[in-house]
Amino acid sequence: MTCISQDGKFSLGEHTLAVPMELYKLNRERLCKRLSEVVDKDAYVLLQGGSHISHYCTDVDYIFRQEPYFHWTFGVSEPDCYGLIQVSSGEAHLFFPRVEEAHTVWLGKPLSLDEYKCRYKVNYASYADTLGETLNALKPSLILTLYGKNTDSDMTCKEAHLKNRQVK
């Protein structure tokens, strides 16, 4: 498989800082190292990225900005994604939304799962609607999610959740 990943870097365009994807992998490794000291080896971290938001009742979206913790962990720029990391091994899974064929007229052809895997330097890439199946197959002893209040903004961090089911 050939990896076409914009030179393996996150960048917002010409004349902006290009951040190597290896930095996000290093962030995940550091996170797992700290967590492995206090949680079971079969624990997983589940994070939910930011979502696109429509401008009122139109089909126009606000400019998307990724959820900061998700970006720190994965470097992903697409909305509506999930990330899963096994604490003991550091293996990373990314889950991307399926793009309906009719939407490709406006959105363009989406990357393949292999292209996402290459771009973001993760072990696995799947569709978001398979996250529940993946969790059931992995049988985690503990699922760690991000939840808490930011003391600067007084805003509460949104905890990852699956449709119709809160993940705890």
UniProtKB/TrEMBL annotation:
Spans through the membrane: none
Protein name from the UniProt record: Aminopeptidase P N-terminal domain-containing protein
Keyword Hydrolase: yes
One GO BP: proteolysis
Highest rank taxon of the organism: Eukaryota
PANTHER family: PEPTIDASE D (PTHR48480:SF2), PTHR48480
Gene3D superfamilies from the UniProt entry: Creatinase/prolidase N-terminal domain
Record InterPro entries: Aminopep_P_N, Creatin/AminoP/Spt16_N, X-Pro_dipept-like
Domain Aminopeptidase P N-terminal: 19-154
Pfam families xrefs: AMP_N
Any GO molecular function: metalloaminopeptidase activity
Keyword Metal-binding: yes
Record's keyword terms, sorted: Dipeptidase, Hydrolase, Metal-binding, Metalloprotease, Protease
